[in-house]
Amino acid sequence: MTPTAYIETHKDRFIAELFDLLRIPSVSADPAFSADVLRAADYLAQKLRDAGADQVEVCPTAGYPIVYGEKIIDASLPTVLMYGHYDVQPADPYELWTSPPFEPVIKDGNIYARGACDDKGQLYMHLKAFELMIQQGELPCNVKFMIEGEEEVGSDNLGIFVRQNKARLQADVIIISDTGMIANDIPSITSGLRGLSYLEVEVTGPSRDLHSGLYGGAVANPINILCKMIASLHDEHNHITIPGFYDNVEELTAEERAEMAQAPFSLEAYKQALDLSDVHGEAGYSTIERNSIRPTLDVNGIWGGYTGEGAKTVIPAKAFAKISMRLVPNQTSTEITEKFTKHFISIALPSVKVVVRPHHGGEPVVTPTNSVAYQAASKAFEQIFGKKPVPVRGGGSIPIVAMFKSELNLDTVLMGFGLDSDAIHSPNEHYGIFNFLKGIETIPYFYKYYAEMSKG
Ligand code: BES
Ligand code: MN
Ligand code: MN
Fold it and tell me: Is residue 176 lining ligand 1, measured as CB closer than 6 Å?
């Protein structure tokens, strides 16, 4: 049977199995879902065994477990290490979903569910591509699977697991499907990811909430002050004002920028898809540059005071914000967290107290486009999509990719099949059945070409 025929024969089951995974609300950020996160790990371990993997294990960590499995057919052949994550982002706000987030449905050729694209749908393509290669007797090299449950909360325990299991994880390349491509008729391969520095700030004014008539105008309102502090973090050109923030930023050459500008992109379609009358960002850079090769600072959440029904006249005691900064080569998350903290405390007025609490971080990466593995992935896309994929730098973060390089000295191929319009992390996340099945079809060709091209 050809791979295409195998997929055609089994696609309904593939989708049904993915639906079972999507029904498990494995939200890593919220302890209320911890039993479900564990259930998702067990489900994947069973599916790996069913597909033919050996040594399948749900490896405990200080947090959620890592699902491991492997198929070693010949120690002299190359080994591909597949990484994915079975945890998902919280689904709130639930009321904005057109169907419940953990009851997957198909609408207009898309699977709607939290995690449909990020990353359950994409990681499951690898299990089914593996099943296909085993069933067809076509697995051309060794494969290891490592699927974690804490990606959406910073992968802290995965870093420890990788350091403690260097021998078991020995491989020649890492393959990940947890990114996107430009469009279904414009395949692309992600050639880099931004890093992340995530923190929370707390501004304290008076020792208790106060009547805003009795005290208003005479004491610092921490929300007013926090807003002013946050507003001052960008200047009129939308440059970030933190001293030294850009010190280590890698500037691309005019040629590299010209090459980036070749990637198909329509500003009109972009604005339309997001219902924007205009885009917004750092002066001197294009939209594509702003969301990939330039660092950013964004408030992810801000709260304090009274936000309930009706009005309450109060000067709050405290105000909070969660702030993320996306980093580019050669910034580091420690450096940027320190620079932010020092600056934010220095701009605090004497009328308030300011505390900065760092959360997780991750380092930026650029993945090589001249490696055998990249060329094999490129050929696989060309085979299935009929077009050579374009390399594009991605704006999101997958912290483990930099760790794979620093701890295992392994390069990663970011072979993603999602679309920007899949609404990952948003209400109504979805994933195209086209993309799911094309992924299952493309991955075995990656293995085939990688094994062939590795022979030299
Ligand atoms: N899969 C995403 C990252 C991604 C998506 C990269 C699309 C490129 C294109 C991943 O699950 C994710 O959401 N990562 C987080 C970082 C994490 C430390 C919370 C992110 O980028 O916000
Ligand atoms: Mn992901
Ligand atoms: Mn994500």
Answer: no
